[in-house]
Amino acid sequence: MKISESGAIKLGKTLVIADIHLGILGFPDYSIRDRILEVVHSSKAERLVINGDFKHSLGKYELKHVEKIIGEIEEHVSELLLLRGNHDGLLHEIHEVHDFVEVGNATIAHGHKEFEEMRDAGILILAHSHPAVLIKDYISGHKERAWLFGELGGRRIIVMPAFNELCSSTAVNVEKPAGFIFGYVREFEAFTINGFYFGRVIV
Length: 203
Fold this sequence. Notes:
Blueprint: E1 2-3, E2 9-11, E3 14-17, H1 30-43, E4 47-51, H2 63-74, E5 79-83, E6 97-98, E7 100-103, E8 106-109, E9 123-126, E10 131-136, E11 141-152, E12 155-159, E13 170-171, E14 187-192, E15 197-202
């Protein structure tokens, strides 16, 4: 397993990114498509898993634009798997959507809902909460997107940062994050997206 500063996880030949929120500033939204293709090419991944919230709006108007970008991404990978997020209403009308996927001993799901199959995962990879940490100095503070690492009953829990840097984020050292996992696990090790160890946080 390899974690990158882009907010991606690579599991063998599978690359995982989350919380794309395509169209957050309107359509067409080619900049985020280009970032996706950049990390696909640099990682040499063969399969891409988008772990929920591929699009931002729940409306039908955006679907034709989303469908076009899906097609463009599929030209660069052997398989594109879309996992269902809370922003992905109607996405199933243009592409198959899954609740979760298993890659080796890892189970990947968006994190807004819990599924029975997650309980047997050696590693559980979630998203949804857009985790960040608030870093303060003497004058002010700023948020940095972050990875969260925890444990639950011997299983490793990983919460991914949002891939789209324009998304709002939750500073987990001062705010309560969204997602079912935080009802089970409250203590995490936090790393900024560029690999800096922030420390232990209690959510």
